[in-house]
Sequence to fold (337 residues):
Amino acid sequence: MSKRWTVRPDGSNWGDFGEDDQLGSLNYITPECILDAVGTIKYGKAFCLSLPLDYPGGAILAPPRKPPKIEATIRSEQPYFNYSFSNDVAGCCDRGCDDRISLSTQYSTQWDSLAHIGHEFDLNGSGEKKICYYNGYQAGKHIRPPEERSDDYSMPLGIDAYAKLPIQTRGILLDVEHHFGRESLNLTFDHIQTILEADHITVKPGDIVCLHTGFADEVLKMNKKPDPDRIHTMCAAIDGRDQKLLQWLSDTRLSALVCDNFAVERVGLPHEGGVPAFVPLHYHCLFKRGIPLGELWFLTELATWLRRHQRHSFLLTAPALRLPGAVGSPVTPVATV
Fold:
């Protein structure tokens, strides 16, 4: 029994992979899963699944998150850009450039770490609820803001766990856009089942399921000037209140869930009983099951190629930045077919 909890949330997998586990459903990725994924490569063709990291542009989509800023570092009190090394050793003719960036880790194509969403939960059956995260890691005790940590910024459930693994397995693309178009749609289990049956898809343990809705493609067309009237309503997003869909995510033992939209799920839907959660899919995936969520991935070119070749599986390689203690990470996923 864990030292952090004696009662775990109903339907969770807390403790199934060890008392101190921080990988959650990524543990479902086995060497056999990776070998199976490698076996899907028939053409030796690779697809970049990332948006340019300065998209979507502005802060309309998520006001707390700002576009990246790039600036030259400073060397010898000068901007380190087209810098002459004759400043360091007389007579040298070579030049150099060096820069640094400031960015919100979840501004564009990204992974959510398991520290992204927590909940209030009674860990010991005492009647006292505490703010906690996957596998019972507690706010304040384990999950703390950067200024309250040690100099290395490390923290349980940090995004660096997704780099140390690293994330590589079979990807399965469900082409929501092909079946239901790009109009606003709250995606339910019945929609998912329709796609699985129509395209003869079987999801195996360890797979990463990727939902193509066309959202990221629409964002690209907006050229970093997102339309405030469309950006929050266009294309499909999961209805996180659908209990059948949440149970399917648990039963399939997928290792991660990815979408090309803003939050995978439709944010801000009215609460309909059960556990009160602003983002119920995040609650189920990150808090209860340790299922990483990938958001704002660019899947349209891959989806087009896969449909042309009557396929839906590929090798997916998508490690996060090995940045200790970060809550999210930009990612440049690669699909190989």
